[in-house]
Amino acid sequence: MNGQAWLLLLEGAWTTLWISSIAIALGVVIGLGIALLRMARIPFVEQALVLYVSLARATPLVTLVLFIFLSAPTFGLAMDRNTAAILALTLNTAAFNAEVWRTAFISFSREQKEAALACGMTNGVFFRRIMLPQMITSSLPGLVNEMSFLIKSSPAIAVIGIVDLTRVTNRISAVTYEPLPPILAAALLYMLIIGVLLKVQAIAEKKANRLAM
Amino acid sequence: MPEAPAVQIDNLSKSFDGVEVLRDISLTVNKGEVVSVLGSSGSGKSTLLRCINWLEEPDRGSIHIAGQRIGVDAQGKRMNNRDLAAIRAKTGMVFQSFNLWPHLNVLQNVMEAPMQVKKMRKDEARAIAQTLLEKVGMEQKAEAFPYTLSGGQKQRVAIARALAMSPEVILFDEPTSALDPERVGEVLTVMKNLSSEGYTMIVVTHEMEFARAVSDQVVFLEKGLLIEKSAPEKFFTNPETERVRKFLELST
Fold it and tell me: Where are the bilayer-spanning segments (chain A) (predicted)?
């Protein structure tokens, strides 16, 4: 492998990273929104969300990416590859994140809420200052876990022609006729990215232990 | 016009699923008074306490905190959350299971409500919190997180948290029931000090000695009825009802 090949690999890694990062950021926030809406138990909205979460969790990522990219023109949407990829990854990860957030909601103790109300906090202040910070801490290990899953399943976006970190290895070996070095190099880059996430997860877990009374 | 009592309860009733847990309770607690609420489990004493700050909504009757009606507005409708929170801020509550906020350290637990509810400046809230932590003997642990504390220490922090809002009345819901026996004393000592400093307190408790030594009034609940209300000496030496006599015999 020469310098040119490494450059291509890094480009592929960058594609994987920025598309995944946007999907992760959107997915975490939308997941929280879905969990909040579901806890509000609004008729029809709740059923619709349950349906979405089950569908998104049951659909393979490759299928979802293809479906979104290929069906967009039918709905009159001009969608480029990257947007379709981000949308598919977001729809997928948001559904899993919603479940992580919801678990944190359900397991939150009523007593802490009573303590907050008893000293004059409104529901809004209680949520913002007492509940949300703890939900973030207790959900973080699960959310980070989901993030690393997302990155590891992101090669699915190659199906619509995006040259991500995995796809780029094919390109390189098509020229060099040596598939092993680029694959190993790509694996190393994946490990680096996931390694950073695992580090974050370890810190998050340590902080979460504090909440266990 | 004389000063409004800290807490005035009139004809309060409450049922859960058709079971009456409070029946026509009336009670006046004046400023600076300590009232102990006794009774066996299930007599309704915790529910009574939780109605005072509207954590439970009573079915009938009214409650005034320092002259202001809680839970019901001038039109007789259910109070909006903001107004309800404003009146609740005039009460403090200490729970059986402490209910500290585990993501905040001791100092932050005490500072949180003054800063968020009273919009107090941080340095001012910190100064108040430090003074209160000294009052309950927890100033050494200001930076510690709740999970590192013993039950007695947690409860003393919870008391400081309740005091931080300078409430008209502090409601204690069996504050020593979840503690190891050797930790009960440190919490009761703090509470005794508060009573001698003139704080208004309503205490649901099983600690007979404490009730006798500290209270201005002792009330006894039985199946949701307030069956006896007397000064502590009379209550413990010469109660009016046979039920209280029996209760005292069994619990000493």
Answer: 12-37, 49-72, 183-204
